[in-house]
Amino acid sequence: MSTSPHTYRVFLTTRARKQLKKMDRFDAKILATWIKNHLEGCSDPRAFGKGLTANRSGEWRYRVGSYRILAFIEDTTITIEIFSIGRCDSIYSN
Fold first, then answer.
1. Cα 78 to Cα 5, 35, 39, 40, 85, distances in angstroms
2. So what family is this one in (predicted)?
3. How many CB atoms lie under 10 A from the CB of residue 56?
4. What DSSP element (H or E) covers 29?
5. Which of 32, 41, 91, 94 could form a disulfide with 86 if both were Cys (CB 3.0 to 4.6 A apart)?
């Protein structure tokens, strides 16, 4: 997919890649497909997620079934950095 100056590119951190690899293949495929269809190349990544508050200010959360994707949105570089992927009951604990 070619990117124009106003579309976002998605990057997964090493931690997020490991989390995706460890989960069930079916769930991992659903999450990877969701990321590709909703975030990669989009013009407004905030439309699909929710900004977090308090000690997680600046982070964004995306809900995909019982999973959560946590990311930073960088407007200056037009990128979305996904740093954590996991089930909703354990994603917010470090």
1. 8, 16, 11, 11, 21
2. Belongs to the RelE toxin family.
3. 12
4. helix 25-34
5. 91
Q: How many domains does the chain have?
A: 1
| Position 4 in a domain | no
Q: Which residues contact 42 (CB under 8 A, 6 or more apart)?
A: 7, 8, 48
pTM exceeding the 0.85 threshold for the entire prediction: yes
CATH of the domain at 69: 3.30.2310.20
- pLDDT tens digits, the chain, 94 residues: what are they? 444 557 999 999 999 999 999 999 999 999 999 999 999 999 999 999 999 998 999 999 999 999 999 999 999 999 999 999 999 988 887 6
